[in-house]
Design brief:
Radius of gyration: 19 Å
Helix content: over 70%
Strand content: under 5%
Low-confidence stretches: none
CATH superfamily: Tetracycline Repressor, domain 2
Shape: elongated
Mean pLDDT: 90
Structural class: mainly alpha
Number of helices: 10
Order of helices and strands: HHHHHHHHHH
Number of strands: 0
Number of domains: 1
CATH architecture: Orthogonal Bundle
CATH topology: Tetracycline Repressor, domain 2
Length: 199
């Protein structure tokens, strides 16, 4: 039952917002009593924390799976971007923006984990791209990884609408890739841009 509550809460929170959804809403959607929810979660903040942890785990597992598929570095980044687009497609307001505004402690907790894992992914992606001659070999991997995740997190933290956030993140990915790319990388980037826009 606990897993079912988390699954339903995740769907409602992401679609309609962390602030607007109440425990009554979740109970009503599941046709259970609010008392049943409180048996597993002492308050809404604890439920949100577990929900966000669950989403974070799903995102991390999916990114790891994508990273192990043997894609080239640029294709890998665009595949991750599609994953985020699909995952949050039905969301109106950016979940990260909502968390930061209404539940700052939960936000800080999840962001510290997210930062560490994104840092790992961006580092390995840049190193892979250099090895594949898609990215320039003279780049400072640490600096470029840091530039990119600061840019992505800044977009998420400060953009209210999820659709706008996704569009800005797509543009940030193109910007990041062009800054790193060799001529071979630019050719691959143009190919991925066309595929992404047609999907």
């Amino acid at each position: 039952m606990k897993e079912k509550i988390i699954a339903k809460a995740t769907d409602l929170f992401l679609r309609l917002g962390f602030k607007s959804i109440t425990m009554d809403d979740i109970a009503g959607e599941m046709c259970i009593s609010k008392k049943t929810i409180y048996k597993y979660f002492c308050n809404k903040e604890v439920l949100i924390d577990e929900t966000v942890t669950n989403v974070h785990k799903q995102v991390h597992e999916t990114i790891q799976k994508i990273a192990s598929q043997g894609l080239n570095a640029i294709e890998e980044n665009f595949t991750v971007r599609r994953m985020f687009k699909d995952m949050f497609n039905s969301t109106d307001t950016s979940p990260i923006y909502q968390l930061k505004k209404h539940y700052p402690e939960i936000y800080e907790n999840v962001m510290s984990k997210q930062l560490e894992e994104c840092n790992w992914f961006f580092h390995q992606n840049i190193e892979k791209g250099i090895a594949q001659d898609l990215y320039r070999s003279d780049v400072n991997v640490e600096t470029y990884a840091k530039f990119y995740y600061i840019l992505i997190f800044s977009i998420n933290e400060n953009t209210v609408l999820e659709k706008e956030s996704q569009e800005l993140e797509f543009q940030a990915l193109e910007y990041h890739t062009r800054a790193l790319a060799t001529p071979k990388g630019i050719t691959e980037l143009e190919k991925q841009l066309q595929l992404y826009k047609s999907s």
